[in-house]
Design a protein that fits this description.
Elements: H1 2-27, E1 31-41, E2 48-54, E3 57-62, E4 69-74, E5 80-85, E6 92-98, E7 101-106, E8 111-115, E9 122-127, E10 134-138, E11 141-145, E12 150-154, E13 161-166, E14 174-180, E15 186-191, E16 195-199, E17 206-211, H2 218-221, E18 227-232, E19 239-243, E20 248-256
Parallel strand pairs: 1-17
Antiparallel strand pairs: 1-20, 2-3, 3-4, 4-5, 6-7, 7-8, 8-9, 10-11, 11-12, 12-13, 14-15, 15-16, 16-17, 18-19, 19-20
């Protein structure tokens, strides 16, 4: 009888370890931290809603009624190349370049604006349900966040929805600014925290959680708003990140703790 009890205990223990091992990577993804490689100035009046790097151009979308718009700057020199404003009461949100179109979201106006990437001139509009928070482009599709834990895939020409994926964990996360990385994964600011989630958009699995706290000193953080804005520098393992009303854009790597 004692031997049977021991055998049963071993079986139960092994089963529990197996369950823990299977769920650990999904429920408790690795945590990374920020390694700052460099900094560059950022307009402290910009309520940043999205960053996008295309070649040598950095696009930035901003929000707030009467202060919303899109600007394009030279990635190397920081020189502003062109800028357009959204008339009030539109509240601008994220931006992404898909082929020959630069798409810009609005928050609660349910309007997406298709722009010429060079001149930022408006060419067309599309409508959508719900709120618009951010956009990025991946594998010929747009990936859109709406402030929930679900990502929506959209046609890059018509803006029609083609599918969704919901996070398999962290189910009440408010996904904000997005970046579609070169490896096919998606990075997302988790509003209103200082965390960035690394996501597999095929499954909704959170691959890693990046702690971006402490970038701005407390004396500088006063008067700013949340972390928001992430864009991978093409051909590198580095990203540009910033926040709403932040005076600095940080060039960073995501490294193990």
């Amino acid at each position: 009888m004692e031997r049977n009890r021991r055998s049963l205990a071993v079986v139960v223990l092994v089963s529990l370890l197996g369950i823990t091992g299977c769920g650990g990577s999904d429920d408790d993804p690795p945590r990374l931290h920020i390694e700052v490689v460099g900094t560059r100035p950022h307009d402290p009046r910009a309520f940043t809603e999205g960053l996008e790097v295309d070649g040598t151009v950095l696009y930035e979308a901003t929000g707030m009624p009467g202060a919303s718009g899109v600007r394009a700057t030279d990635l190397t020199t920081g020189e502003e190349l062109t800028r357009v404003e959204l008339p009030a009461p539109y509240f601008g949100e994220g931006v992404t370049k898909a082929g020959a179109t630069l798409w810009q979201l609005t928050w609660k106006d349910r309007v997406a604006i298709a722009r010429d990437p060079g001149t930022l001139t408006e060419r067309a509009r599309a409508s959508y349900d719900g709120e618009g928070w951010s956009l990025c482009t991946r594998a010929g599709k747009l990936v859109m966040s709406n402030g929930t834990d679900t990502l929506t895939f959209r046609d890059p020409v018509t803006f029609a929805a083609t599918g969704t994926v919901t996070l398999s964990t962290r189910n009440r996360t408010h996904l904000n600014e997005l970046d579609c990385a070169a490896d096919g994964s998606v990075y997302a600011n988790s509003y209103p925290t200082d965390e960035i989630l690394h996501i597999d958009p095929e499954t909704g699995r959170v691959l890693a959680v990046i702690d971006a706290s402490g970038l701005l000193p407390a004396t500088v953080r006063a008067g700013t708003d949340v972390l928001n804005g992430i864009a991978q520098l093409p051909g590198t393992d580095r990203f540009l990140i910033t926040g709403k009303y932040w005076p600095t854009i940080f060039e960073v790597r995501f490294v193990p703790e």
